[in-house]
């Protein structure tokens, strides 16, 4: 009988733990979202996005609570989040629910964070774990998407507010990254 992830030893246990499996589920939900959205079920697609958000909350909670935080999970978790958000914003721009300028701003920010994080990770630099500002930005984006999908008043103005907040959050992450790695250099 194959071993369940919790029964594995050493590195395999760190790779196949419940938080990492939930993160991988988020990757699977990306094409599910696209299929549902592409079929014209936009509100249902929003609930697929909410399900992805729920897996994000659960994997973080379980990883911290059960001390299952891994370098792989720390890298894959934000990647799954960013790829889901890029997918959502591209679907919204192609369906003309948001402007291409808003989508481009969000895409540039998220793509920059993905590329920057991967670049520094593979160069052996420490990465800044998700913090309350990043989580707040994600929640604000979900609210903005809710406003847009359900065509609520001021949805586009609110979206631009969230875009500005996300860039401020990115600058704070960059500063935290710099300080973290400077301390690491000074400690060596």
Automatic annotation (TrEMBL):
Single GO molecular function: CDP-diacylglycerol-glycerol-3-phosphate 3-phosphatidyltransferase activity
Pathway: Lipid metabolism
Keyword tRNA processing on entry: no
CC annotations in GO: membrane
InterPro entries hit by this protein: CDP-alcohol_PTase-I (IPR050324), CDP-OH_P_trans (IPR000462), CDP-OH_PTrfase_TM_dom (IPR043130), CDP_ALCOHOL_P_TRANSF_CS (IPR048254), Phosphatidylglycerol_P_synth (IPR004570)
Location relative to the cell: Membrane
Top-level division of the source organism's lineage: Bacteria
Database matches in Gene3D superfamilies: 1.20.120.1760
Keyword Lipid metabolism: yes
Transmembrane segments: 20-37, 44-63, 83-108, 128-152, 158-180
Entry membrane topology: Multi-pass membrane protein
Keywords: Lipid biosynthesis, Lipid metabolism, Membrane, Phospholipid biosynthesis, Phospholipid metabolism, Transferase, Transmembrane, Transmembrane helix
An example Gene Ontology biological process: phosphatidylglycerol biosynthetic process
One Pfam short name: CDP-OH_P_transf
Role according to the record: This protein catalyzes the committed step to the synthesis of the acidic phospholipids.
Annotated family: Belongs to the CDP-alcohol phosphatidyltransferase class-I family.
PANTHER family for the chain: CDP-DIACYLGLYCEROL--GLYCEROL-3-PHOSPHATE 3-PHOSPHATIDYLTRANSFERASE, CDP-DIACYLGLYCEROL--GLYCEROL-3-PHOSPHATE 3-PHOSPHATIDYLTRANSFERASE-RELATED
Name used for this protein in its record: Phosphatidylglycerophosphate synthase
